[in-house]
Design a protein that fits this description.
alpha+beta; 4 strands; four-stranded mixed β-sheet; Glutathione-S-Trfase_C_sf; single chain; globular
Length: 259
């Protein structure tokens, strides 16, 4: 009944897998390899014209965009992860929007610079060029080429880290008042933010959580839920971890800035 078109190490895909796991729903996996630009091929674009993952198909109905998918799942299957109280429901949607509009773009920059580009570093120039030639959208192919051919932009990563400190501070402030992000009940807001924990682990940015006891308690509660491990990317589909030399360079730059 449920088929999920997703990439295993995609933040937005993690978010939907977490919702499926929390509701204990059976689903069929349809992997879309971002590395091979499968999300931009005609067959997938016919399903999702935006060319992004994930996409859910339920009884021949197609639902795109991760936050919409999770709300659809919540309405279609019990138990609900949305409060009946209007003010808590509004808070939940605000946190989900914050993940989509602020947290995800911030993580995407750091992920590309430290992890995604490594997928291509071990390939020969000939193989990289062949892959880019098969990119179905020439303008995006050229932008991708420019990024692959340049060194790590440490300043871009530092800017992402500064924003992540702001994210952590905001979460700490909220969690000093409530057990979960959108009140005292676990909700889709916490489901969305599970992906943040997973990617911070992979990037080696755990230092942003320091000296935030309320946030630390939330992290412990999230990790204790079976959902967290059930939604995680299997090892064979993980992007490469950041290189030690890149993390050392960042550590030096962070120290210089007093971060």
């Amino acid at each position: 009944m449920l088929a999920l078109y997703h990439e295993w190490d995609s933040l937005m895909s993690f978010k939907v897998r977490a919702c499926l796991a929390e509701k204990q729903l059976a689903w069929q996996s349809r992997r879309v390899s971002l590395r091979d630009f499968e999300h931009l091929r005609p067959a997938y674009l016919a399903l999702n014209p935006a060319g992004v993952v994930p996409t859910l198909v339920h009884n021949q109905q197609v639902i795109c965009e991760s936050s919409h998918i999770n709300e659809y799942l919540d309405q279609a299957f019990q138990p609900s992860l949305v409060s009946e109280r209007i003010e808590l429901r509004d808070s939940m949607r605000s946190w989900c929007g914050y993940f989509d509009e602020v947290i995800h773009p911030t993580l995407r920059v750091a992920s590309f610079q430290l992890m995604i580009r490594q997928r291509f570093m071990g390939m020969s120039q000939q193989d990289v060029q062949a892959l880019i030639r098969h990119h179905p959208q020439p303008a995006r192919a050229q932008a991708f080429q420019n990024l692959v051919d340049t060194p790590v932009d440490y300043q871009a990563v530092l800017t992402s880290i500064e924003k992540l400190y702001e994210v952590a501070a905001l979460m700490e402030q909220r969690l000093q008042q409530t057990l979960w992000l959108a009140g005292n009940g676990f909700s889709l807001a916490d489901i969305a933010s599970m992906a943040l924990l997973d990617r911070i682990d992979r990037l080696g940015f755990d230092f942003i959580w320091r000296n935030k006891p309320a946030l630390a308690g939330w992290i412990e509660r999230v990790r204790a839920r079976p959902t967290f491990s059930l939604a995680a990317c299997p090892a064979q589909f993980r992007m490469p971890a950041p290189r030690a030399e890149d993390l050392a360079k960042l550590g030096s730059l962070l120290a210089q800035q007093g971060l």
